[in-house]
Amino acid sequence: MKYLIVVDMQDDFITGSLGSKLAEAIVPNVVEKVKNFDGKVIFTRDTHFADYMNTQEGKKLPVEHCIKDTDGWQICDELKPYVNEIVDKITFGSVELPKMVSDAEEIELCGLCTDICVISNAMILKATYPEVKITVDSKCCAGVSVESHNTALDAMKAVQIEVLE
Predict the structure, then answer these.
(1) Is the pTM of this model over 0.85?
(2) pLDDT in tens, 69-107
(3) SS3 of residue 84 by DSSP
(4) Partner of 16 for a Cys bridge, out of 12, 22, 139, 141, CB 3.0 to 4.6 A?
């Protein structure tokens, strides 16, 4: 089975509290990728709660975002029609995701942010399934900055995750 993991394409990361022009720019690419993908598509959703500012992450990144059931927590409107399966994750990488793709022959990832959640999930999947082909589409990812995006892509290449340019 081929899987496409669409990481955290949520309003808060695109146009909301942590949004950026870099994130906005990849939305059409991700829509095309999802529409044309021949396999199973799974979305992840960064999920925090009202106590976010008291968490370890909240103390290091004191910007409320992706609070469950808020508008910013939602998958962006352009991708909503394609959401069939979703995993809510309370941290950067999902430990549930590997269980969901246990029959994978290939796994491709895209989404936000390359240097935080995309790399975290890619590394977890590579560690769990070292013989499965794992790819990341760089044109369908955006990082906090162009530099951190490229650094994350280089780190993934170093552990034999294929990066599509």
Answers:
(1) yes
(2) 999 999 999 999 999 999 999 999 999 999 999 999 999
(3) coil
(4) 12
